[in-house]
Amino acid sequence: MTIRCVKSRTILRLIPAAASLFAAASFAQSEPVPATPTPADKPPQGSAERIEITGGRESDTEQRRQSTAAKIIIGRDEIDKFGDSTVGEVLRRLPGVTTPGAPGRGGAPRMRGLGNGYTQLLIDGQRVPPGFSLESLTPDQIERIEILRAPTAETGARAIAGTINIITREGYKRRVNDLRLGFAYENDAITPGLSWTHNDSAGPLIYNLSASAFDNHRRSSNTTETTDTRLADGSIAQQQRESSQTAEHRKGLNATARLQWRLSESGDQLTLSPSLFHSEGHSDRRFQLAQTVAPTPPADPLYDRGETVNDSRFTNARLNGQWRQRFAGGTRLELSGGIGSWRSASETQREEFRNGVATPLRTLQNTADTRERSATLTSKFSRLLGGQDAAPDSAHSGVGGVEVEAIRRSETRSGDSQVDDGGDNLQASSTRLAAYAQDEWNITPHWAAHAGLRWEGITTRGTAEDGERPVNRSSVATPLLHAVWKPDPKGRDQVRFSLTRSYRSPGLGTLIARPSINSKYPASGANTPTSPDRAGNPDLKPELATGVDIALERYLNGGGLLSANIFRRNISNLMRSVTALETVPYSPAQRYVARQQNIGDAVTQGIELEAKFPLDQAIEGAPRVEMRSNLSVYRSRVDSVPGPDNRLDQQAKATANLGADYRFRSLPLSLGGNVNWVPGYETQLAENQRTRAGTKRIFDAFALWTFNPATALRLLASNLAARGYESSNTIAGSTISETARSYGPSYTNWQLRLELKL
User: Fold this and answer.
1) Would strands 749-757 and 205-230 be described as parallel, antiparallel, or unpaired?
2) CB 65 within 8 A of CB 553
3) What pLDDT shows up at residue 424?
4) Residue 319: phi, psi to the nearest 5?
5) pTM for the whole thing?
6) Do the beta carbons of residue 294 and residue 238 sit within 8 Å?
7) Which helix (H) or strand (E) holds 683?
8) Secondary structure of residue 76 in the 3-state scheme
9) What angle do CA 688, 694, 699 make, to 5 degrees?
10) Rounded Cα distance, 188 and 750, in Å
């Protein structure tokens, strides 16, 4: 496999600047460190000499350095710096991580710019259930975040872009009792919040309890302009503008616990981890529709104004357990299991009016209730194969495991579904079996390797009232190889190599063929290409990706690092939503329907740069400002789609972060800020479909005043200098091309929080 250079004007402009930053920090580190301070190095009399003491657990940077598989670790210190209120705010500043949608509105995190499903999201090593939002977790409930750019046999291969594993707070013997009270202000709406974390021990029991409550209020607005253009002469056949104003209210309670019993002095342990997340939401959306260019012949618009009211509830409860037993000879057995259940319910009413008429032109009422139950059972066996006592630099260990997961889902819909085929009730199930083996070996002081093989099989079944039983079966074998080369075993430089196979499996929602009607256009007539219905495809195959990663890392004095990583993924059986005009049983007219389809092969590649260091290590005499920066540039190509811009769906060309924080020595004050940038881009989805996403620039800042070791006050501003966000979607038919352009403002979110250590 060859690695092609990423050719882009963006790369040419930005890489020299990043390289200069790398070189400056690297040059500063190349100077020898004197064994004892010279007189010029000694602090003046009367000043406080800065003393650093290290010990205990390895730092995040050191854990990253020692890992054979490429891993980025973000620990409590880094998470606490900004004092973010949501996990999404933490993740979007991490290397290569983006969030979709408008600035400040968040969404599921994505790695390497790839869309939904390419990034594996885990909480304590378990996959996040569908419908669960990471926004339900507060940063106070997180111990650390692990980012794996390439899959491993143990963590799973459903990670073409990579894996984000969120580890919840662990119970250490050190007692912690933290309380945070505050409120946020955004667009004239006030949101109070509270979080509490408690660590303690009682004999052999070490426990951690975390809880948070929120009551979010949010207002937003949006405008969508839809233009139909005649392909023959480029004239406008029709143009409509819909503007909307939405008020949302969401409240909830999150609670997690980790109970660890120490069963023996050798490290045997039993752990129970219950969790409960519950939220309720209400939204009121008012919209207006106006014809700016009337069609020929003239026709009345569908409606002039309307309102949609939605009430929703989501509950997720889970209990995980783990038993760990150590045996003689460096052997360890782990048995883990979990049971969980989540339920999502919603009620929606949509009313449409024409001006001057009090009676609704059309009323739609729908209720939906989705329940899912899951159970997992895993066994993991690890054994030290040699080298630990006689030759610790050549330690050799093996790990093997088996995983079983069963998921059962039921969906009930009632009201004006407008669909007669498939019924209102659905039962679906998914069974997953996996087995893996991996070997981690310090071959020589210069070389370490991590090799593994994983097999995974998934069977999905669905049942509906009409008797149809779609079944989808798939299995994937994924060999994985990681290696680290250290030119000098005692030095700070190392090179990483990864050759992996990964995959992306279709979810239940994309497999089960249940149509969902676009609420804007009744099933009694036709719809438009930019407002299609949606349906599943039970014949989907999983995407397969063969990938290579090469990284150069330099670890600096004082915990800093410089890293440059290039990657490539060759993808087959690419899944993409395809919109086409279909004859459907639920309408007398042909309707545009969007379905996931396997459309062929694709390739994605990129370069990722990261630098983190104190400024005084790069510039002599500079203040000790902690600098953090990363730049990622991506390029992709879908073979079955004509170019230019035939990139993977929703993959931005680049993403970058530049952040810094500083703690004053004369004042109990810490300041910090971060700039996040994602450039706008266009994507050719099909020969007749094209989308565009606008540029995003997000500036965050914080100030922390520490009154005493137990009391602090934090002011946090997210999305300062808020900018609007634009996007568009164009689909061409035989005679008409339709373009929908959307625009909406974004808002600055201010937060004030009192942080107490009780």
Assistant:
1) unpaired
2) yes
3) 57
4) -130, 120
5) 0.82
6) yes
7) strand 681-686
8) helix
9) 160
10) 11
Instruction: Specify the higher pLDDT residue, 224 or 70.
Output: 224
CA dihedral (556, 561, 564, 568) in degrees, to 10, reads: 130
For Cα atoms 545, 547, 552, give the angle at the middle one, nearest 5 degrees.
155
To the nearest whole percent, how much of the chain has pLDDT over 70? 86
Structure tokens at 658: 């530049």
- The CB density around residue 453, as the number of other CB atoms within 10 Å, is 17
Instruction: Report helix, strand or coil for 469.
Output: coil
Spatial distance between the Cα atoms of 365 and 350, rounded to a whole number of angstroms: 7
Asked if 695 contacts 678 with a C-beta cutoff of 8 angstroms, the reply is yes
Q: What is the dihedral sign for C-alpha 16, 21, 25, 27?
A: positive
Report pLDDT for 392: 53
Average pLDDT (699-705) is: 94
DSSP 20: H
Q: Tell me how far apart the 2 most distant CA atoms of the chain are, in Å.
A: 91
Residues near 257 by beta carbon (within 8 Å), at least 6 away in sequence: 207, 208, 209, 210, 272, 273, 274, 275
List beta partners, residue 635. Answer: 605
The residue ranges of every structural domain in the chain are 9-30+182-757
- Residue 525, CA atoms < 13 Å, CB-side half-sphere: 8
* CB-based contact 142:167 (threshold 8 Å): yes
The amino acid at residue 685 is: L
Give the architecture (CATH level 2) of 9-30+182-757: Beta Barrel (2.40)
How far is it, in rounded angstroms, from Cα 599 to Cα 641? 9
Residue 297, pLDDT above cutoff 80: no
748 C-beta neighbours (distance < 10 Å), count: 17
Place of tokens 């209120």: 85
- Kindly state the DSSP code that residue 89 receives in the 8-state scheme: H
